[in-house]
Design a protein that fits this description.
- The structure holds two protein chains of two kinds.
- Helices cover about 0% and strands about 45% of the residues of chain A.
- By secondary structure, chain A is an all-beta fold.
- By secondary structure, chain B is mainly beta.
- In chain B, about 0% of the residues lie in helices and about 55% in strands.
- Chain B is built from no helices and eleven strands.
- Chain B has strands at about 5, 10-15, 20-25, 30-35, 45-50, 55, 60-65, 70-75, 85-90, 95-100, 105-109.
- In chain B, strands 2, 4, 5, 9, 10 and 11 form a six-stranded mixed sheet that branches. A five-stranded antiparallel sheet of chain B has the order 1-3-8-7-6, with no helix packed on it.
- Chain B is globular and about 40 Å long.
- Chain B starts with a strand and ends with a strand.
- Classes of the chains: A mainly beta, B mainly beta.
- The interface between A and B is medium-sized, with 19 and 23 residues.
Chain lengths: ~110, ~110
C-alpha cells in the first residue's frame, strides 16, 4: 500500500441498503477525513477523526457514521442509503502540523437508485 | 457564515499565463491551500500560504493578502496538461478546511 486506498472504486446501491466505504492509509497520519464532492459544490466534510479512537461531525454528517479503531483505517457507513447520497466520496489524511497538506484517496463513486 | 468564492470556469491559451482568484470569509484563518484536480481523479496539493505575499514553485505561484481575504493562483507557460479544476481551501479556526467549488480551467491550443 502506498498512500491512501479506498474501496470500492464505484458502486451502485439500492435505496435503503447499508453500505460501508473503506479507507486505509499507510502514512501513519493521525488525522483522517471523509468528504463528498458534488457537481457545482465544493468538497464538503462529512466526518473527521483527529486521532485513533476519536471522531467528529463535519458539515454534512446526517445519514453517515464513522469509526476509527486504529490509525490506518477510517470506514464510512451509510446505514440506509438514499438517492441524495449519490456522490463521489473522498477519504483524506493529514499529518499533525496545520501546514501539513491533506492527501486524498482515489475516491469512490456511489450511485443510490 | 463561511464562504469561499472562485470563478466557475476560465479559458486560456497554451503557452499563456492565467490567474485564478479566490476570495474568502471564514471564522479564523490558519492558512490557504490550492489543489489541482483532474477530471475523475483526486485533488492533489499545489501550494500553501499562511503569510502575505507570493510563493513561487516552478510554473505555479500563489499569492495571499489576509487583510483583503484574497488569494490567487498564477499559472505560467500553460500546457495542455494544466487543464483541470483548481480548488481553493482555507483552514479555519478549528483547523478544518473550507473548500471553494473549484475553477475549471480549459486550455486551448
Amino acid at each position: 500500500i502506498a498512500g491512501i486506498t479506498q474501496a470500492p472504486t464505484s458502486q451502485i446501491l439500492a435505496a435503503g441498503r447499508r453500505m460501508t466505504l473503506r479507507c486505509t492509509q499507510d502514512m501513519r497520519h493521525n488525522a483522517m477525513y471523509w468528504y463528498r464532492q458534488d457537481l457545482g459544490l465544493g468538497l464538503r466534510l462529512i466526518h473527521y477523526s483527529n486521532t485513533a479512537g476519536t471522531t467528529g461531525k463535519g458539515e454534512v454528517p446526517d445519514g453517515y457514521s464513522v469509526s476509527r479503531a486504529n490509525t490506518d483505517d477510517f470506514p464510512l457507513t451509510l446505514a440506509s442509503a438514499v438517492p441524495s447520497q449519490t456522490s463521489v466520496y473522498f477519504c483524506a489524511s493529514k499529518g499533525t502540523r496545520s501546514a501539513d497538506t491533506q492527501y486524498f484517496g482515489p475516491g469512490t463513486r456511489l450511485t443510490v437508485l | 457564515g463561511q464562504n469561499i468564492d472562485q470563478p466557475t470556469e476560465m479559458t486560456a491559451t497554451e503557452g499563456a499565463i492565467v490567474q485564478i482568484n479566490c476570495t474568502y470569509q471564514t471564522s479564523g484563518f490558519n492558512g490557504l491551500f490550492w489543489y489541482q484536480q483532474h477530471a475523475g481523479e483526486a485533488p492533489t496539493f499545489l501550494s500553501y500560504n499562511v503569510l502575505d505575499g507570493l510563493e513561487e514553485k516552478g510554473r505555479f505561484s500563489s499569492f495571499l493578502s489576509r487583510s483583503k481575504g484574497y488569494s490567487y493562483l498564477l499559472l505560467k507557460e500553460l500546457q495542455m496538461k494544466d487543464s483541470a479544476s483548481y480548488l481553493c481551501a482555507v483552514m479555519d479556526s478549528n483547523y478544518q478546511l473550507i473548500w471553494g467549488a473549484g475553477t475549471k480551467l480549459i486550455i486551448k491550443p
